[in-house]
Design a protein that fits this description.
alpha/beta; five-stranded mixed β-sheet; 16 helices; elongated
Length: about 375
């Protein structure tokens, strides 16, 4: 019964530890008190246990505070005080002050001091940063976020935007997976590379580029085919299928032709995949007067513009969740392309404008 009397634990904790009921434990304690006396050695041990528990608690608090606030220790006092205010619900304010090297008096002065002009501007900018991060599906890093804030009238530099994003845990998380989608082992004719990695165009419908990628769902692979207009980087044709056959590429091309009516002589660039080299696909290209261009075998840089699109949609949409059905993934892709990528997403290659805004300005 010395454990119950000297350990510092509650009786319920002791009962649970030794596997008896509370009534039995209480009975034993009463009998023990009647027949035995706690020695001075046991009392000293109990005091030492209490001291060690308090010390361990303080060390754990300090460890947890340092995990959250180690960058703050190198920052100015105002940053330390803000950190204390943000975490005072989790830790005592006095402990936070001790760990980050701030005084309680300074904290009281910080609380009573009105926000400076810089702090007020930071709060406004941070509110817009959080909103734009939500609207961009968490895909905007410092450069795009800075351009977005300037667009809405905030005169802010990229260093301040980077600081606010870093201090508030707003970052872009990217992952990477890979699956081969190009079948270049075929006997169809191969066209030469007319683009030669020049992905700029002076006007719409001068250069188109297409490719096929993939999305994993619980029903199996869903293949995504797209065609981009290299003038605005706009997705002008796209289609999905559970099979990577030439019909997928043909549907994509027909959509782009129907909506954009390219003039004869428009360059159509892809890789050497069998879908693009097939007789049916090439026949459709000839009917509409395209100049056919193809990249080198296995060279991703020869179609870098479309590869960049696939990198964006995977990082910003596909890899962020698990897809139960192909239909679910298809609807999400539709919303991404038509609701975000074409009308809103900013591109460094377009002077940080969206495809639609860039095309409108050029017109």
């Amino acid at each position: 019964m010395r454990l119950a009397l000297t350990s510092g634990l509650t009786r319920k904790q002791v009962a649970d530890d030794i596997g008896v009921g509370m009534s039995t434990l209480n009975k034993w304690i009463t009998q023990h008190r009647d027949t035995d006396v706690v020695s001075q050695e046991d009392l000293d041990l109990a005091k030492e246990n209490d001291r060690l528990r308090r010390e361990i608690k303080l060390l754990k608090e300090e460890r947890d505070i340092l995990k959250k606030g180690h960058p703050v220790l190198r920052g100015p006092k105002a940053m330390r005080f803000r950190f204390i205010e943000e975490h005072r619900a989790s830790f005592p304010a006095t402990r936070l002050c001790d760990v980050v090297g701030a005084s309680a008096r300074g904290l009281r002065a910080f609380r009573s001091r009105p926000a400076s002009r810089k702090q007020r501007f930071d709060l406004v900018a941070l509110a817009h940063i959080k909103e734009q991060s939500r609207l961009s599906l968490g895909s905007y890093g410092r450069p795009r976020m800075t351009e977005e804030l300037k667009e809405i009238g905030l005169d802010v530099g990229h260093r301040r935007v980077g600081r606010l994003m870093r201090q508030n845990g707003i970052s872009v998380v990217r992952m990477r997976k890979h699956k081969v989608t190009t079948d270049s082992d075929h006997k169809f004719n191969i066209a030469s590379n007319l683009l030669d990695r020049d992905f700029m165009a002076d006007a719409p419908n001068q250069k188109w580029a297409g490719d096929i990628s993939y999305v994993w769902t619980r029903e199996g692979w869903l293949y995504l085919s797209v065609i981009l207009d290299l003038h605005s980087r706009q997705v002008i044709g796209w289609a999905v299928s559970n099979r990577m056959k030439r019909d997928l590429a043909i549907r994509t091309l027909k959509m782009a032709i129907a909506f954009h009516a390219p003039p004869r002589g428009c360059i159509h660039h892809t890789d050497r995949g069998s879908q693009y080299c097939s007789h049916d696909y090439q026949k459709l290209l000839r009917q509409h007067g395209f100049k056919v261009s193809m990249g080198g075998k296995g060279n991703f840089y020869d179609n870098a513009a479309v590869e960049t699109f696939f990198k964006s949609i995977k990082a910003e949409l596909i890899w962020r969740r698990s897809w139960e059905t192909r239909r679910q993934a298809e609807m999400a892709i539709f919303e991404y392309v038509n609701g975000f990528y074409n009308p809103l997403r900013r591109h460094s290659a377009l002077d940080w404008k969206s495809p639609v805004a860039f095309e409108r300005k050029a017109a």
